Amino acid sequence: MKNIIMSGMIMILILGVFTACTGDNDAETSAAPTMEAVSTEVLSEDEQEPPYEFEFEDIDGNVHKLSDYSGKPVYLKVWASWCGVCTASLDETDAFAAKAQDFVVLSVVSPSRSGELSKQDFITWYKDLGYDNLVVLLDEQGQIIGDFDVMAYPTQVFFDENGYYVKTMIGNLSEDQILNTIQDITQ
What we know:
The chain is α+β, with helices and mostly antiparallel strands. The longest helix is centred in the N-terminal third of the chain and has 16 residues, at 2-17.
């Protein structure tokens, strides 16, 4: 009996380390892009994989593509309105986005997927919060959650200045953790 209780307590501690909300991923999943795309080996144009690309509208109807941010690393936060960890960190994320200069901060939600609100309900809900700095992209087809096998929120996806996928991290990250990761990308 003690072993069962101890095992349960260990599992709770392990789960507590990963500060993330989980949801059912109803998008088709595929393997996340590999690190081979950011190899330092010089390849001919025919041998190189293309950089990752997406095209999503933000909550105001403006279209954003990853390639629009060429020249700067991109920090993409994947989150959901029902995730308490995500909503509790919105103040920090909005303030962080306002300070970003040498990199881009974007966020993405997938309306009507994985328990998320419908597109219009999400837009209304988010605009009522009053955040002005964080770009929120609407991934209605679930491209990001599928391509990067997002199983928990928040999940962070990092891209280098050329649009190549570099790293995925699950759970809420501190500003220092994000900055250190971006610094690693640019070196």
